[in-house]
């Protein structure tokens, strides 16, 4: 099949598990749904693309803005600084650089983008955001790289001792090309970087703090770097991760604490594990009382081992992010998982080494904005690495909401005088779009602990499996959250409510209006 996103495409109808049309689709079947898509196209391996979603679903299709992809930084009157160049920072750089009248700069502490070996589950919610954020080339890369397995089950949940499948994360109404998939963090980061214009990313720029610019008549923020330099900017996008210095500047009590489990992870060439008999071809998670082992293929030729294992705090304190443990780590894992499904130990034995990372967290921010000029995105805003395998979904949702909010307040007529955007209003829209949803997710994390305690108290394996199935919730509201839909809901309300002292009276008047008034 030939990859293409340009020009007129045939109209096909997807109905009840098959796709009819002239494209000869074999692999793009959709289970059990009747769905009418127009302009379906194919690219590589039978992946179904359909505008307006497949990388063509840029804002010009949904909203009146010409979202093109500049090769160089556009002429600017609005300065934005992104602090942190991880998944959230790279997504912000690629996305926000397409806004008009913006000068964007990313300040990244590291000297280069590093391989940080982890499986990233890209959930449906993330796919929705990416389909509207990425360039066609970026979206094409995602379709090529994501590992989805053979079926439509998402990640299988298996019983830790036997590997029996207990449940799975079905999403039967989602077309194949929008289904969740698995990819390495590095490959995902590379995809995002494809859309970042040259000259935007600045390495070895370690930000110590930000402050409101106190110069007379000044607005915006001043950024203080470790090398003693400072820079002024209209707006800061804090994407500096779980340990965010910027967050702790505003919330000194936002203490990052160990949450009882260590993540051991390794990404290896498929060659190292392909000899293992009975290695599942799906993405599977083995579960036991809060401990999890994930095994999965990722992008072509790559296999991933990730586990979250209960470890004492004294031991966890000796570990660091990307801390490589050779034989000592492998031996520890073999001992820890000796009673689990034997396939897990076989995989562990095939690993040359393993990285260990203590899973820390801090309370999530109630408001994602500060000083009418700072927006928090990604783990900086919701510091719990890996919740529901949806950390990147949350980060991309943040970036997408921020993009839409800034776009909404852009006024090209005032751009020449340096006020192309109403930043405070944009940040208000952003905060209202994200904070309620994220608060609800954080609540769910707490409530899930009650279910976990109930399941863990089972006295037999059969009882454990029964309780797990009974309490497992599929969480589409979270994993498939559509940030554009939420943003539309907020914006349609806030255009009437924002700073409107007469909002209550206006609403009362509207209630009594008849259409045409
Ligand atoms: C074991 C594990 C498994 C996970 N699995 C999944 C999964 O399956 N699915 C999923 O969606 N998510 C998963 N996550 C979470 C996901 O990795 C994070 O949510 C995501 O990486 C957050 O991106 P971020 O850009 O906000 O933060 P980071 O990726 O941490 O990036 C922050 C960046 O900011 C830079 N920085 C920090 N401080 C400064 C400073 N002062 N000045 C300048 N730069 C700075 C850092 O160098 C870094 O590059 C997992 C996490 C872990 C630990």
Q: For the residues shown, what is the average pLDDT? A: 83
- The tally of helices reads 15
Strand content: 15-25%
Helical proportion? 25-40%
The top-level CATH class of the domain at 257-361 is Alpha Beta
Q: Can you count the beta strands? A: 24
**Can you tell me the CATH architecture of the domain at 257-361?**
2-Layer Sandwich
Q: State the separation between the terminal residues, measured CA to CA.
A: 55 Å
**What does the overall shape look like?**
globular
Main sheet strand line-up: 10-9-18-19-20-17-22-21
The CATH topology of the domain at 257-361 comes to D-Amino Acid Oxidase, Chain A, domain 2
- Parts with pLDDT < 50 across at least 5 consecutive residues: 1-76
Protein name: FAD-binding domain-containing protein
Keywords: FAD, Flavoprotein, Oxidoreductase
Domain FAD-binding: 82-420
Family: Belongs to the paxM FAD-dependent monooxygenase family.
